[in-house]
Design a protein that fits this description.
Blueprint lengths: L6 E6 L5 H13 L4 E6 L11 H9 L22 E4 L2 H6 L8 E4 L12 H27 L4
Parallel strand pairs: 1-2, 1-3, 3-4
Length: 149
């Protein structure tokens, strides 16, 4: 009987920046060993898409998230996850209950969408969020993957 691939949900507020970057990072780290999805607790319309500065910051790290789409946490109700990674306190506090015993992994990454200033200063906020997410998700993946055999 085949073993089910672990599923991880990365949850943010609008699912247009941090959670999308986290999805891209964890997909890169895990390859096909984990099924990774992201969503938002108050996700906007799929037509709004992933924030262009999130796409740009990730492109600089040679990760393409331009084809990812905005999703609401509601579309994952009733599904099981091994872990739910929240990227901010708002998502942690608003995270609904899920089937099974998903581990809750809370992070509080500053919202780059809240950054003001020049276009370059705003992009820098997305770079900082990307780098923090990479650090957090590398640690998370190491724990999730378990000890090497």
């Amino acid at each position: 009987m085949p073993t089910r691939i672990p599923r991880v949900l990365i949850l943010g507020t609008d699912n247009s920046g941090r959670s999308q970057m986290g999805e891209g990072i964890l997909r890169q780290l895990a390859g096909d060993t984990i099924d990774v999805v992201s969503a938002g607790v108050r996700a906007g319309s799929p037509a709004t898409g992933v924030h262009p500065l999130a796409v740009e910051a990730m492109r600089e790290a040679e990760l393409d998230i331009s084809l990812q789409r905005v999703k609401s946490v509601e579309q994952f109700r009733g599904q099981e996850f091994e872990a739910i990674v929240t990227v901010c306190d708002e998502a942690r506090d608003a995270c609904p209950a899920f089937a099974g015993r998903a581990a809750r992994v809370p992070y509080n990454i500053p919202d780059p969408a809240a950054a003001a200033g020049t276009p370059e200063e705003r992009l820098e906020a997305y770079r900082r969020a990307r780098d923090l997410l990479f650090t957090c998700l590398c640690e998370f993946f190491t724990v999730l993957a378990g000890p090497a055999e």
